[in-house]
């Protein structure tokens, strides 16, 4: 059977006699580049207002990087749910899996004395197994995705309580110690343990190239392609230079190893979802499973793989949480489920016009944290955090939806 390239969207633009599509015409809001960037720009305006209002209390590189460091497990969970959302499914078990692997990352070492490399492998393997269980329930047994993952989430959370006997696990003088590179001062989980400057700037350069590549793909219809290939890289480079002059070099050199791990995982996932057949077919499965099957895509197998990848990322989030905290508490990651979904759904409006994206998840989740932190620095009680998060998500998605409708 001949296959169809399902990765190329239909723009809906009429083709003239010459066979080449006619550039879209209309008002400013009909520019997909603008509609996909308006939420991002709105966040920047808000943060500028925070800077004027709060000054250095908000515009602190260390404070904002600490926010990303502490919320790395949440952002990893955002990536976990992103994969299944792209496939058209919901995974409500990721936070419970993260709680379970947090306990195992601590307990298997301090209680059972396992070699720590084996501990990490066991945690990731458990995540893959949990994802496989979810996939089989949803695809093979046709259990509703909400019911299946809610049930398995309860199982994972229950297993963490059984393993820990409902108490906190932390190293003691009588237990096996956690590796010094994993948790504690100067470790992976320590914010004060910064990456070498050379490594940080290499990462920044890679991100700059990725940003230029992304901007090149967002050419407004009214700008000639050849001109855009010149204007876009220069514009991104000038913006990067301005940010460095404003002090962004402190952000680059202030990255912790946890943040670098988060960026590395995001980069690998981005390549898998955008540059491979797996990613293209996964998007096709989530967009229209029936059409994808007619084109030869094995949608069932892809959906199972999406759950497996999501399970591994959830397990990794638990390991990172264990490194950051050096201990495990009951329900330690249960409160991360809503922020994780919020980050994933914000990706559809941050530098996007309705598609789930990896970098949109990282940026959207980070911006969501910064909005709350700015208000807390300004005097708002921390108990309002979830209210603010929900309001920001609702407003961002609603405004983006209005702009998309107006741009049609």
TrEMBL record:
Alphabetized CDD domains for the sequence: TM_PBP1_transp_AraH_like
Location within or outside the cell: Cell membrane
Keyword list, A-Z: Cell membrane, Membrane, Transmembrane, Transmembrane helix
Record field: compositional bias (Low complexity): 12-22
UniProt keyword annotation of Oxidoreductase present: no
Source organism superkingdom: Bacteria
Transmembrane segments: 32-53, 74-94, 114-139, 146-163, 198-216, 228-248, 254-273, 302-321, 333-351, 358-376, 382-403
Pfam families in UniProt: BPD_transp_2 (PF02653)
Membrane topology recorded in Swiss-Prot or TrEMBL: Multi-pass membrane protein
Stretch list, region Disordered: 1-22
Protein name, per record: ABC transporter permease
Organism from which the protein derives: Patulibacter brassicae
